[in-house]
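Structure representation.

___
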Amino acid sequence: MVKPLQFKGEKKSRKRKVRDADEINRSDHASKSLAVPKSTESVSEDDSWVIAEVPADIIGPIIFAMPSSQPCCIACDGNGKVFASGIENIMGADLATAEPHDVRQVWVACRIAGTENISFKGYHGGYLSCDKFGILTASHEAISPEESFRCIPARDSVGMFSVQTEYGKFITTAEDSKQVGVRGDADLISFNTDFRIRMQARFKPKLKAKKETKAQEKVSRKELEAVAGRRLGDDEVKLLKKARVQGDYHEAILHVRVKGKHDKYS
């Protein structure tokens, strides 16, 4: 590398490390912004299982707990075969406590745009499907009317749903003395068509909103003082925490900063 010419007696100029404007802005913003509370991170990491209470809740990973003599749920294998799989993670026979122990038991529910219908995707990428004969499979990798279902809540039991197919039939438990099966050819809603749908808590709209609100409330005095640029009194801390919940946090922190400047020069 060619260096610039230097002459005898010429003072050497010190190299100054010039910070990039973007770097300055980032560091300034980081110093003034609040650190994300740990509770906010836990909102997106909550893998506990809860009951889906209304059709709007049904989104993300779910399981279909079946009304059979032995606790079972709808599952599928890598070839797209749909079958009834025994539930091991359950308290007694209470389907409201059922959780999957096998990835084959989990379906990912997704809303179909422009409709009230839902698609259910298996772990291997195939969608739950029901043909006109009531045979359930999970081998199709694209959504057609046969991969579209409507979840109808039970009238007398919260968290129970009947799953209706494109042909107006219902998915039902088919049980005999030897085994438990599942089909999609029931004409009417009955005890055998009522499924308990369990879902991950982090996807439930009501719980998600509640936890995000709690996460906003959980901010330390140290974080608030870092943003305000000075020590805060108890009343000011309460005011800022309340403002975070109500949505006028920025106006409140500006008021506190201005007040701090006035007290400094008074």
Observations:
- The two ends are 59 Å apart (CA to CA).
